[in-house]
Amino acid sequence: MTDWDYRVVKEFDCNSDEILLSIREAYYNDNGELCGYTQLGVSPHVESIEDLRDILNRMLLALDKPILVDGEVVFAEFTDKDEENE
Q1: 23: burial class by Cβ within 10 Å (0-12, 13-18, 19+)?
Q2: pLDDT digits over 10-55, tens only?
Q3: Parallel, antiparallel, or unpaired for β 18-28 and 34-37?
Q4: Dist. CA 36–CA 60, nearest whole Å
């Protein structure tokens, strides 16, 4: 099972020489280790105010976690090695 949440990612925009922050979906392996995140920032596309509130609250939680620096993150293996040996 893959777990996920939102994380803030900092990146350098070579076109404007600016530092940009975005919210991305981050994915974790069964050991809880970061194994990837979306290439681009995400925005909510939902069908109800309740769903929008839930997604925005989840995104707000990302602001309390360490910021990931694009290009410096070392990702773990996506699959739990113990499961591969079964």
Answers
A1: buried
A2: 999 888 889 999 999 999 999 999 999 999 999 999 999 999 999 9
A3: antiparallel
A4: 20
